[in-house]
Amino acid sequence: MSQSNTNDFIVIKAKEDGVSVIGLTRGTDTRFHHSEKLDRGEVMIAQFTEHTSAIKIRGKALIQSSHGEMETD
Question: Where is the Tryptophan RNA-binding attenuator protein domain (predicted)?
Fold first, then answer.
C-alpha cells in the first residue's frame, strides 16, 4: 500500500437524518463494500485504502478533504 493511500481521508457531517455513505471497491469490477447511515449532526471520518477507491454520499452533507470543502445539494 502506498503512503498516499493511507493519508487520504474525508470528513462527512450529515445535515439531515438518513445520509448514506457508501464505500466502493478498487479493481476491475467496482462494487459496494461498506455503507453507513448518518443522522443530522453526526460526523464520519472515512479513509481511502487499498480496498476503497471511492466514496459515494447520498443526502445533505458537508464534506471536507485536503482538496477543500463542499456541500451536497
Answer: 6-73
Please choose, from the candidates 52, 57, 50, the residue with its C-alpha nearest in 3D space to the C-alpha of residue 72.
Answer: 57
Closest Cα partner for 41 from 1, 67, 14?
A: 14
**Segments making up each domain of the chain, as ranges:** 3-67
Q: Find residue 55's DSSP bridge partners.
A: 23
Q: What is the topology classification, in CATH, of domain 3-67?
A: Immunoglobulin-like (2.60.40)
Question: What are the pLDDT tens digits along the chain (73 aa)?
Answer: 444 445 678 999 999 999 999 988 877 777 878 899 999 999 999 888 887 788 899 999 999 999 999 999 8
User: What is 5-64 written as a DSSP string?
Assistant: HHH-EEEEEESSTTEEEEEEE-SSS--EEEEEEE-TT-EEEEE--SSEEEEEEESSEEEE
